[in-house]
Amino acid sequence: MNGVTGRMGTNQHLVRSIVAIRNQGGVLLPDGTALMPDPVLVGRNEDKLNLLAGTHGITRWTTDLASCFADPQNTVYFDAQTTQRRVADVTSAILAGKHVYCEKPISETVGEALELARLANEKGVKHGVVQDKLFLPGIMKLKRLIASGFFGRILSIRGEFGYWVFEGDLQPGQRPSWNYRQEDGGGITVDMLCHWRYVLDHVFGAVKRVNCLAVTHIPERWDEAGKPYKATADDAAYACLELEGGIIAQFNSSWTVRVNRDELFEMQVDGTEGSAVAGLRNCRSQHRVNTPKPVWNPDVPNPIDFRAGWEEVPDNASFDNAFKVQWEMFLKHVVLGTPYTHDLLEGAKGVQLAELSLESSRTGRWMDVPALTIPGKKA
């Protein structure tokens, strides 16, 4: 597990996924046996690795990635490093015959992403990319509504994501400073459009076109040492997308917005028969027969409590941590060969949408999103 000393690597992938799987006795397999992951923590800071391993009862850690690749006991390579470091190490893992599972974006360019997918297929290793939002309770409830036919014909989707990331002068920022330097692989378009690609593709339909404006609203920030630096990466992205079937999606992603919604991410879906608002955990719906009939009159207070007309979609199930759910799926895929759709080609699609969105922002044009195939493989 390379890069687990970072925020996401520690919290979501190590503690809430691998450590949680170990604590529950492993991943239960159909024959009644359990698959127990035995992680090696990899990074560049010995002190951090030693502390992290000791805190969670993990005996193996190292700063020597090559030794991990040389050890036949290690069969899966996971990468949660910064994007710029990912391609080289994932490539080395594939060449060493390791199955690979990595965070998004899997690369900085779609060409590199497709080459990773091609190489993994050529070497016969199993591969996957993190697409955690598909396994969040709010999105799973939304998928339940879609499967039931609740919406009728879906017309549009409006997604709002983000929060105010402090600049670093008044108080420390909540995100690492490299996120705001383009030369270090930063930018919210690269970070978040990868997410919106797989959410749209897997929940609603394939993305066909995109028009995006990427903006750097805050030109100066302060780094972890309290030193000012120029923010060269975009901190907000405003995207309009056309999906198959004529569905229109609008997604605003911003680290420069103050939250006035129930969750940090919310997505409203409107259809001919009903609408829903899904967040990370919750989902509310309103059917056609329960829709109020407002009349526009700015001269008098509106008598309708619009929020009161929405109903919570019940859990009706137990929801585990989204990252842990996908980890268990991938480990079963490695051991049992069970189907797994969230592969490196899916990761390449996310990079493609981010790349086209940035090109749209530079040129002011709508960009077609062509189908992607792995080089040398028939569509």
Our count of helices gives 9
Kindly name the structural category: alpha+beta
Helix content: 25-40%
**Main sheet?**
9 strands, mixed
Helix/strand order:
HEEEHEHEHEHEHEHEEEEEEEEEHHE
Taking the alpha carbons of the first and last residues, their distance comes to 32 Å
Poorly predicted regions: none
Shape: globular
Please characterize this protein's 3D structure.
The chain is an alpha+beta fold and 379 residues long. 32% of the residues lie in helices and 22% in strands. The strands form 5 sheets. It has a 9-stranded mixed sheet with strand order 17-16-15-14-8-13-12-9-18. A 3-stranded parallel sheet has the order 5-6-7. It has a two-stranded antiparallel sheet with strand order 1-2. Helix 2 links the parallel strand 3 (40-42) and strand 4. Helix 1 (7-23) crosses helix 8 (322-336) and helix 4 packs parallel to helix 5. It is globular, with a radius of gyration of 22 Å. The model has no long low-confidence stretch (mean pLDDT 96).
Could you list some keywords that capture this structure?
379 residues, alpha+beta, nine-stranded mixed β-sheet, 9 helices, 22% strand
Can I get a quick summary?
With 379 residues, the chain is of the alpha+beta class. Helix content is 32%, strand content 22%.
SSE blueprint:
Layout: H1 7-23, E1 27-28, E2 34-35, E3 40-42, H2 46-55, E4 60-62, H3 65-70, E5 76-79, H4 83-95, E6 99-102, H5 110-123, E7 127-129, H6 137-148, E8 154-162, H7 188-203, E9 207-215, E10 220-222, E11 228-230, E12 236-243, E13 248-254, E14 265-271, E15 274-279, E16 283-287, E17 311-312, H8 322-336, H9 344-363, E18 367-368
Parallel strand pairs: 3-4, 5-6, 6-7, 8-13
Antiparallel strand pairs: 1-2, 8-14, 9-12, 9-18, 10-11, 12-13, 14-15, 15-16, 16-17
Helix pairs in contact: 1-8, 4-5, 5-9, 7-9
